[in-house]
Amino acid sequence: MPVVEIAWWTPSEAYLADPFILKPALDFLKKVDGAKNIYSGLSESDTEKTLFLFIGEIKHREVDLDVNHKCMPVWESYEHHKTLMAHPEYPQIIGLGPSVGSEVSVNHVNFVKDVDASLSAPVTEVLAMTLQEGKTADDFAKAGAAIAEQLDIANPTHAPVTWGQTVEDEKKFYTTVGWDSAEKHKEVITSAPLVPSRTELRNTVTFKMNRVKLVKHV
Known about the structure:
This is ABM domain-containing protein. The protein is of the alpha+beta class. 31% of the residues lie in helices and 30% in strands. Helix 6 (137-154) runs antiparallel to helix 8 (195-204). The chain is globular, with a radius of gyration of 16 Å.
């Protein structure tokens, strides 16, 4: 499975006015060894703008930069990312120049399944989750598998739902789900059959949800 790097930060006014100011950083990342795919996009929220960037092969690790701008690179391995961090131009990638309106944060996630289907969907749901007190990774795996199975049946076009544990914090996980639209997401997730599994998930983790329209950079 891929290493997905998710970085997020509040985008600057300059980025909101002209998203193309992010292109130089994306062009640089496309040339980095081990970075197989790059997706970026702004969250749909009207109150909190978050920009996401995914880079890599989509195999096993994610980087999340909270609050308003998310950058998610998918790496072939964690070692590929560490090599980039040693690159003399790495600071310009972390800063991402004029697109950044706040401090950047990073996580690396080992996803259990391929994330390409969810990242390439018209709308991607990104859940950042933390275990509730007394809960374990096994508890999350059980709750996550139950609701993921139902979602894959109800939403087969963008299956599978996938999740992964962060390298930085064993209590933190990410889940990505692909949807045709925000309306479809609301329709399925609030349906009666999902109430028990949704309740079990809420009893296992706390989470923050973003819906993002991602674009793949080629």
